[in-house]
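Weekly puzzle thread! Below is a chain. First person to post its structure in token form gets bragging rights.
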Amino acid sequence: MSTVYHYATVLKAIQELREKGFNEDFNLEDNYLASNSGRWSDEEFEIAHIYFYEGATNPDDEATVYGIESASGHKGILVTGNDALTDAESGAIIKKLLKHRNDK
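Winning reply:
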């Protein structure tokens, strides 16, 4: 079960997650969640925290910060922009991220 928070800046959300031990930097790569430590499919991680950043003057400034835990114990952060989850890479990873974001 993920927890949703709203902060004024992406930096504040990242700082909060770092304090909770989310130290990996995750990226989306070929329908995998990837970091320097490896790659994970949609079934190999859970979303523990979601932080929303809402641009005050420009909707394009909106971002979502995910605190993610892999099944192998890696904890990290994925930051997506407003349009990042509609790219051609859409697949199981994107569907999982959108489901968690939209459920909140």
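Puzzle host: Confirmed. Bonus trivia for everyone else. The CA atoms of residues 1 and 48 lie 6 Å apart.
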